[in-house]
Amino acid sequence: MRTGLIKHSQYMDFLRSVPSFQSLPEDILSKLADVLEETHYSDCDYIIRQGATGDTFFIISEGQVKVSQQDSPGDEQVIVKTLAKGDWFGEQALKGEDVRTASVTAVGDVTCLVIDRELFKQLIGGLDDVNNKQYDSDEVKANVQAEADFFSR
Ligand code: CMP
Question: Does 2.60.120.10 match the CATH number of domain 37-123+131-152?
Answer without folding.
Answer: yes
